[in-house]
Amino acid sequence: MNKRMADGSAGDADYGTIGVGYTSYRQPEPYIGRFISDALGGARTVVNVGAGAGSYETGDREVTPVEPSAVMRAQRPAHLPAAVDAVAEHLPFEDGTFDAAMTTFSVHQWADPAAGLREMRRVTRGPVLVLTSDPALVRDFWLYAYAPLVLDAEARRYPATDAIAGALGGRVEVAAVPIPLECVDGFNEAYYGRPERLLDPGARQANSAWSFVDAATRERYADALRVSVESGEWDERYGELRRQPFYEGSLVLVRALPA
Predict the structure, then answer these.
(1) Is 166's pLDDT higher than 90?
(2) Shortest CA distance to 33 belongs to which of 63, 58, 13?
(3) Engineered SS bond to 210: which of 46, 51, 124, 204, CB 3.0-4.6 Å?
(4) What does pTM read for this prediction?
(5) What domains are defined for the chain?
């Protein structure tokens, strides 16, 4: 979609609706945060595009957040800088303004991901980081057995990693990001060993892919998962994941350096 929604959401998901209560379920995961911090290296000034409520912004750098959704901007804690109301495809900064740029769990929601990535490259002198999911791996997650249309939507929305690399140019690395068992950033795969968490409607709402299936289908999927968990079927099939300290799924960090 190319038109901004009522609260300013600029992509294909309406954060005026699904963003309510988002921060109760989507906290920055320290383990993932260390991956991002290491990849930023010595960058002092960073633009965070699609910054949302401020996950993965740290106080040891000068961060300029960009976020089009009013609902998400309103959930930013007081200790973080206020976000600039703008979209990725039209960043209101001069060429080479920042040492680095980052976007986390956001690129798949942009109206034109390639244009937004090119803008990130334009305003950045150094590394550009994209925390995203590899669409080729999304359906490998056990949730596909219970909510196939949700993960179909997720896989359809995420840009391929080679498309991201092509838009950014330069030297590009793609690294898998392992997810810890007690991950506090509640995207779908964060609950790989805790299926009960996805029985909470708020947890599902905080994952935008669930908004791409109708309410009746969402409830049918949740009921199927509930029956599987309560009957012990889920544990028979996937129970070893409850004891697995990390899960390597579709989550990746793309890091591009200028040519």
Answers:
(1) yes
(2) 58
(3) 204
(4) 0.89
(5) 15-257 (3.40.50.150)
